[in-house]
Write a sequence for this structure.
RNA sequence: CGGGACGUAGCGCAGUCCGGUAGCGCACCUGAAUGGGGUUCAGGGGGUCGCGGGUUCAAAUCCCGCCGUCCCGACCA
């Protein structure tokens, strides 16, 4: 009840007090999304969808640079397709939505609403691939998928979500493995550079692997509460699907061969990652590249004669910024105090706010307030004449600083443990606990014990290893690799 | 799917025990003043009390049934 009452107060609940309530409240208040009448589904409001659009456009460019091309496959998939790969069906069947009726009649074969598109895309690839000259085949699609989840959380887990799923087929194992890692690196760079969210990169344990994959790789971020969030995955599928779907080609020796495949994706979950990795007590803090409003101009005046000088100056600044390619808004709403507007735009995460009042017009300056800092550090005066240059430079600095802050938080929240008791004690505490960097022998029994006793799971086995061996945190047997464990979303 | 709570204005809630004119805060609309960090005052609009049935002169309130939502546990991008 206390949680509900907070939503009605003016102030955002402090992030540190109740992270879950804070997160929900921010998503709703900043108008990123709203609940829908359909259980488990959310509505993306314009401010939230704009972030997705910016992110999507940039990632789409980067994906195309690797040689993949976009296509679009149907939402409906024959139920029998899902059943062709045994691991795959086992993993997805429980959460699949099934269409049994259409046109007023029961369908001869039920259709599933795609939870992911491996099966239908591989089915089509089988038709399209005959020769080694048809390879590699690299496809990507931007689509919605449905997974019937029992528990949902805004952006992080919803019954329907938007994503990008890449599917590639290659002549050799080596080439497919290389593609898997290439895309993993595309995701790492994208999430770190564009969203300013630092991640750890690595391989998933067998238990966390994508159903049907030989190997799954992921990038994992750490959220503001110390819990981990999987931000993107890249799977090496081996020949599991090509054997199930008979996807074969004739090689240059005229021998029939099964193709080697990959799939990789990121979803609207990244919006949740942005909120949780950067947000603070005042609300959202958007990385400039994805902010639908990068800067807002707030004119300040009391009397009509002040408005007469301030408003034209504010409009001139707005025009200059817009012409410089900066996504700008002019907040000339009447009847709201400047203080209210400041708080409002801070809550919505706008990176730079520009205050223009009579004093500023007189001195030919404007007050710039940057969202990545607080207090006196956040405000500075800049000449109105070159406002666009100042804002542009500031946006770049903010991007760097948001990443640096998130990186520092991740480093501070990553701890090495070499005895199980202290690890367990640390993870048992309330809150996330951050990343635990530990030696693990690779035995699923040890992994299960950790999960059951601490709720932490193996997030990733980092690609970069020191090379030195140690003893497994749980069983004490020799372990050749370190793994990151954390409580995850 | 198991355990708990809840459903009354757009949102958050009181009223339910003990039946008797539908209430508060926020938001919204109008007006005036205010305006460099969440303004103030005045006036105003808005509800088949989740749905269906029953008891009663009378039901938000009591009884029965249904539906839905949220929280906690097992599975998941």
């Amino acid at each position: 009840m206390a949680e509900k009452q907070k939503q009605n107060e003016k102030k955002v609940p402090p992030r540190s007090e109740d992270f879950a309530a804070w997160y929900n409240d921010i998503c709703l208040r900043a108008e990123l999304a709203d609940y829908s009448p359909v259980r488990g589904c959310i509505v993306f409001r314009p401010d939230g969808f704009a972030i997705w659009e910016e992110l999507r456009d940039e990632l789409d460019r980067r994906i195309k640079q690797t040689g993949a091309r976009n296509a679009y496959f149907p939402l409906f998939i024959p139920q029998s397709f899902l059943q062709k790969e045994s691991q795959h069906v086992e993993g997805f069947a429980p959460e699949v939505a099934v269409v049994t009726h259409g046109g007023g009649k029961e369908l001869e074969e039920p259709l599933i609403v795609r939870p992911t598109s491996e099966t239908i895309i591989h089915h089509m690839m089988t038709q399209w691939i005959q020769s080694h000259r048809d390879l590699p085949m690299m496809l990507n699609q931007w689509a919605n998928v449905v997974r019937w989840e029992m528990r949902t959380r805004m952006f992080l887990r919803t019954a329907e979500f938007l994503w990008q799923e890449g599917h590639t087929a290659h002549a050799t194992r080596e080439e497919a493995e290389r593609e898997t890692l290439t895309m993993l690196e595309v995701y790492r760079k994208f999430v770190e550079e564009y969203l300013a969210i630092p991640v750890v990169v690595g391989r998933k344990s067998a238990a966390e692997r994508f159903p049907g994959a030989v190997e799954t790789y992921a990038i994992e971020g750490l959220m503001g509460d110390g819990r981990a969030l999987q931000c993107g995955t890249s799977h090496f599928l081996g020949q599991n699907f090509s054997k199930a779907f008979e996807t074969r080609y004739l090689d240059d020796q005229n021998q029939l061969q099964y193709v080697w495949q990959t799939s990789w994706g990121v979803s609207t979950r990244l919006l949740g990652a942005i909120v949780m990795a950067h947000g603070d007590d005042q609300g959202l803090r958007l990385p400039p590249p994805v902010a639908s409003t990068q800067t807002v101009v707030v004119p300040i005046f009391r009397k009509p004669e002040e408005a007469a000088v301030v408003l034209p100056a504010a409009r001139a600044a707005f025009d200059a910024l817009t012409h410089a390619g900066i996504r700008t808004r002019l907040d000339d709403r009447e009847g709201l105090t400047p203080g209210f507007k400041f708080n409002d735009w801070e809550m919505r995460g706008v990176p730079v706010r520009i205050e223009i009042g009579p004093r500023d017009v007189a001195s030919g300056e404007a007050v710039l307030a940057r969202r990545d800092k607080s207090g006196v550090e956040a405000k500075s005066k800049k000449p109105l004449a070159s406002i666009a240059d100042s804002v542009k430079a500031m946006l770049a600095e903010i991007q760097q600083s948001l990443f640096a802050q998130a990186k520092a938080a991740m480093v501070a929240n990553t701890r090495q443990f070499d005895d199980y008791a202290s690890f367990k004690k640390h993870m048992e505490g309330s809150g996330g606990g951050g990343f635990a960097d530990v030696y693990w022998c690779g035995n699923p029994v040890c992994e299960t014990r950790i999960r059951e006793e601490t709720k932490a799971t193996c997030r990733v086995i980092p690609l970069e290893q020191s090379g030195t061996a140690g003893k497994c945190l749980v069983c004490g047997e020799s372990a050749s690799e370190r793994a990151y464990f954390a409580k995850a979303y």
Observations:
- Residues 171 and 259 of chain A are 5 Å apart (CA to CA).
- The two ends of chain A are 24 Å apart (CA to CA).
- Confidence is low (pLDDT under 50) at residues 1-7 of chain A.
